[in-house]
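> forwarded from #structure-qc
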């Protein structure tokens, strides 16, 4: 059976949706499923390393290396032995001639033939290259970097979020792969759990909404079918958190009956199998531990938060978004914080957001649905004397810059930090007309809001020195173009020891739907 992009798109157009030609609803074999995916723009590395390689959670002497054996990436089960021994090596050069560490790791069917190698004994603050070998095949070579120790003059890192496969190609990840950054932070919505959306899209999901472990594995494999995503993973080490769509829209990790808990367990396992994640607990399953605190020398302290696993329902007087144990951990970190920039990786907006003056909160799935706990945490930031706090956030599919106050309804309350919310990689934002109408209304309703831009897609690059924290908002020209060029929309700065942000004069005339004078 031969499939080509033109035939598939013609059939999809005739039916009014792409999903009718997708394999799992059409009963195709795994090989035909892959052929269909590739005809619609997916692309894979040579088997068995079809999903590429990645590294994560860099520390001064250690980094986690990842791969997953998937000869047929869209198959429910891989035709592999129960356990496959995978060789790995780390070198000081891209040619892999100066090996500094090597070994073998078992890839078992139980964990989707994934491999997570916590390499130890590396030198701080330097690049390394790595590769895997299995079944007589060697993977592509990836590059990683360990965290430095001591005095650091500069760190550059990128943040990405919200990459709905059906909404466009990952030109933003192609840009990230080419950036000169030390690491990447992914802020959630790495995959989406729903079924095909049809309509005018360059590609679509491969089947209906996902519920089982096989479903989630296949969905992750589909997303890794974008070559730019694999390239970004291979280029830099990543820190990871998640939001809702890795499991189900707007879910609460502590709610739901047995069917949902089974679905969540399947989603969590598939996420772990497909990410370069170093678990913070005794075992990654059934519940990976996401939250962690990491240092980049004496310059930056990164706090990664998990705002899904432990949360209660929204809009309760005593509701929690952090859970008791994570909140105590966060407050303890605040009390023991070093003299450095403090960056919180935060999957959903921390700042208050009303839709219009005197109106209600726009979305209580974010911190606006947990008012008492937000006030408690931000008051703790203030009373502890923590300075130089920057919160980086995803989820909104638009860019925001906010001042963080202990009480957002009181413009005289203490100012304790700045929040930068990044554009999405591809996930659809509101229309240009909606943004033009509502940007000014959000500005009037939220005195702490400094900037809003919702017409573009991309990622943020953060450049940090002892004196200044800068965010460069990188945007792509067209989600429908896999090699779309990247430009800088605008740049904001925060000066060390001075709370609050300001826009760089050189980019202050860039397009935006709201900018506070």
């Amino acid at each position: 059976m031969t499939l080509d992009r033109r035939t598939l798109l013609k059939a999809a157009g005739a039916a009014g949706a792409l999903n009718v030609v997708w394999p799992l609803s059409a009963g195709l074999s795994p090989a035909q499923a892959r052929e269909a995916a590739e005809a619609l723009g997916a692309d894979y590395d040579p088997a068995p390393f079809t999903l590429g390689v990645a590294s994560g959670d860099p520390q001064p002497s250690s980094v986690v290396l990842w791969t997953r054996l998937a000869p047929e990436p869209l198959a429910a089960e891989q035709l592999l032995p129960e356990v496959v021994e995978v060789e790995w090596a780390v070198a000081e050069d891209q040619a892999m001639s100066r090996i500094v560490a090597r070994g073998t790791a078992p890839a078992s069917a139980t964990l989707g033939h994934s491999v997570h190698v916590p390499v130890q004994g590396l030198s701080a603050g330097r690049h390394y290259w790595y590769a895997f070998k299995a079944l007589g095949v060697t993977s592509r070579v990836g590059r990683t970097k360990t965290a430095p120790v001591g005095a650091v003059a500069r760190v550059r890192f990128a943040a990405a979020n919200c990459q709905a496969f059906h909404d466009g190609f990952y030109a933003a990840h192609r840009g990230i792969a080419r950036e000169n950054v030390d690491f990447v932070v992914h802020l959630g919505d790495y995959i989406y759990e729903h079924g095909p959306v049809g309509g005018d899209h360059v590609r679509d999901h491969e089947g209906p909404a996902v519920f089982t472990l096989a479903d989630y594995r296949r969905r992750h494999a589909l997303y890794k079918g974008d070559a730019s995503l694999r390239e970004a993973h291979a280029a830099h080490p990543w820190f990871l958190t998640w939001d809702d769509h890795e499991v189900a829209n707007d879910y609460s990790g502590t709610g739901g009956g047995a069917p949902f808990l089974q679905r969540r367990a399947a989603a969590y396992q598939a996420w772990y199998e497909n990410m370069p994640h170093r678990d913070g607990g005794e075992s990654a399953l059934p519940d990976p531990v996401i939250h962690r605190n990491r240092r980049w020398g004496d310059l930056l302290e990164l706090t990664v938060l998990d705002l899904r696993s432990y949360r209660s329902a929204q809009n309760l007087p005593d509701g929690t978004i952090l859970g008791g144990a994570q909140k105590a951990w966060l407050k303890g970190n605040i009390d023991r914080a070093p003299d450095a920039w403090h960056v919180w990786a935060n999957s959903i907006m921390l700042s208050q957001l009303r839709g219009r003056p005197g109106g209600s909160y726009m979305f209580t799935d974010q911190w606006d649905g947990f008012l008492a706990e937000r006030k408690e945490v931000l008051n703790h930031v203030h009373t502890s004397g923590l300075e130089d706090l920057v919160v980086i956030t995803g989820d909104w599919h638009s860019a925001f810059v906010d001042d963080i106050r202990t009480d957002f309804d009181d413009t005289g309350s203490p100012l304790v930090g700045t929040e930068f919310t990044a554009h999405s990689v591809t996930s659809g934002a509101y229309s240009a007309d909606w943004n033009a109408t509502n940007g000014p209304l959000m500005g009037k309703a939220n005195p702490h809001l400094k900037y809003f831009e919702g017409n573009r897609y991309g990622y943020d690059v953060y450049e940090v020195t002892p004196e200044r924290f800068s965010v460069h908002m990188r945007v792509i020209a067209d989600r429908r173009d896999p090699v779309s060029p990247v430009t800088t929309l605008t740049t904001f700065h925060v000066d060390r020891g001075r709370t609050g942000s300001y826009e760089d004069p050189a980019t202050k005339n860039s397009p935006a739907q709201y900018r506070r004078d």
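QC bot note: The CA atoms of residues 375 and 513 lie 29 Å apart. The chain has a mean pLDDT of 93.
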